[in-house]
Amino acid sequence: MSSICTGCGRSFSMSGLSKHLALTKNEQCLATRRLPGLSTPPIEVPAPDLPDLDAPPVPFEGDFFGQYGNDDFPEQEGLPPAPALSVTEDDDDDDDEDDEDDENFRLDATIGWEPPIRSFGETRDAAERTTRAKTFVVPFPGDKAGTPATSAETTSPTYAQYQHDLNTVDPNNLYAPFTSKMDWEVARWAKLRGAGSTSFNDLTKIEGLTAALALSFRGMHDLNKIVDKLPMGRPAFERQEIVVSNKAFEVYTRDIIQCIRALLGDPEFTPLLLLVPERHYADSEHTTRVYFDMNTGKWWWATQVSLENERPGATVIPVIISSDKTQLTLIGNKTAYPVYMTLGNLPKDIRCKPSRGGQILLAYLPTSRLLHITNKAACRRTLANLFHACMTQVLQPLATAGLQGMHFADGNGVIRRGHPILATFVGDYPEQLLVTGCKNGECPKCNVTRSDLGSSADTSRPLRDLGHVLNALAEIDNGPLAFTRACHDVGVKPIQHPFWESLPYTNIFAAITPDLLHQLHQGVVKHLIAWLQSAYGTDEIDARCRRLPLNHSLRHFAKGISSMSRVTGKEHQDIYGAE
């Protein structure tokens, strides 16, 4: 039931009207409160008793038991402060009935709840100190590595060249090809913050809007035409056809050399480029080496030494390739096979941030499953040959540029001679096997047997011998039987001309990086869950998951975890937390 205040006309509940009349300062409402016959008396709110903030502080004069002096604490003189106890007594008088049980859990203050901290020796302490201390840098010997090319002509800085390429009538227009700042701001909003092309078209159709804002476009179609005329910082895609087993497949690629020039010529990256290798040490005696960005690694130093012996003045351009077949739809079978590229010359914090634009979409590979090939073994071999044929087409320019070099300009217009070399290939375990040609269940880097895989953490195992593998791949000219036997002897699949076969300074077995997501995080947890299910049974594991109490920081699996399929990354993370 609601009541209406006759003073202000607002509607209140019975209790709300009483509070309103008690706290209001409106004269009309106050007059209503003074009316006779008011059923609900006004509520008097006492003023809080606030302390006098201007009064001087009161000196300490003891507590309930009186005053204390130094004689009252003789055991504290000359001793360090007592350590905080990990277990404190409960001062609540209402829990007297639990005192007997609490006695069983009270420990001596000198023992504490936690077990004594185990010392790991000086090794761990020294390693932790190295992460906080300043490193000692040893530069690459000589003064030619990474230096500008003397024979090449300088070019204009990137921003100046971009302004020149616009070829505008008014060279003083900073917002070309747009007519004004307002024109550019509206176009920027439409592309980055707009609700969509249809909504933007409806907006520009409002009578007098384009004239009032002096816009050079009258809809999204006109705006796209202006944007398409802008000088492109990165090359456009080209469609190519790859013929494998008398069947043509479409591949959409970008020129990898132009992509490299686009990344190195970005003026946002110019002050951050890593052009010369370095060695970092944690001590002045140079005994403990530490690693940070890619130019502090051993590979860059060794490659720079090889290039300087043949062509001094080179700049190493480590090319990092990553690929992963992606499922685009949950319903249906729409997939894509993107290939991305970045450079080791960019710091790792730039490469790991998609918003910085340090990665370039290099190609789209075909995703055909070759259903016309009924034999499964032949289908697998053809898929592997198709992948390597496509990657050969994409990375073929690196074969010449890696040996002879290519001139590139940074954002300031300084030209150097760079040698793009495939340094790293990032992919999950199936991608690693596909790239190296190793068999399932084997290590894509070394010759450890399948039975010994994962049995030890020995990092001194030698990599697969690239020379022996290349010699086996060269047996393809001696017939299929000799080719198959030679590949079997070195432990690789009989792949016809893998894409890394002709790339200079590239060891594909050293270029493979660990897959932290699948091989470490998911791999360890999947192994642990499978072991627990084998030991206790799936019913018991699911029952324990259902028995977990509800918690705001943990997901509750009401149906257990054994029946889950197509587990997402977030669900994996929730399972880790529950375990």
**Could you say which structural class the secondary elements and strand pairing correspond to?**
alpha+beta
Question: What's the shape?
Answer: extended
Question: Would you count the extended β strands for me?
Answer: 14
Tell me the helix content. Answer: 25-40%
The largest β sheet comes out as:
7 strands, mixed
Biggest sheet, strands in spatial order? 4-5-12-11-8-14-13
Features:
alpha+beta, Zinc finger protein 206, 35% helix, three-stranded antiparallel beta sheet, seven-stranded mixed beta sheet, Plavaka, 579 residues
Describe it for me?
Helix content is 35%, strand content 12%. The protein has 579 residues and is α+β, with helices and mostly antiparallel strands. Among the domains are: 3-29, no CATH class; 178-229, no CATH class; 238-437 and 495-514, no CATH class; 519-576, no CATH class. It has a seven-stranded mixed β-sheet with strand order 4-5-12-11-8-14-13. The chain has a three-stranded antiparallel β-sheet with strand order 3-6-7, with no helix packed on it. Helix 16 runs antiparallel to helix 17. Residues 39-43, 82-98 and 100-114 have low confidence and may be disordered.
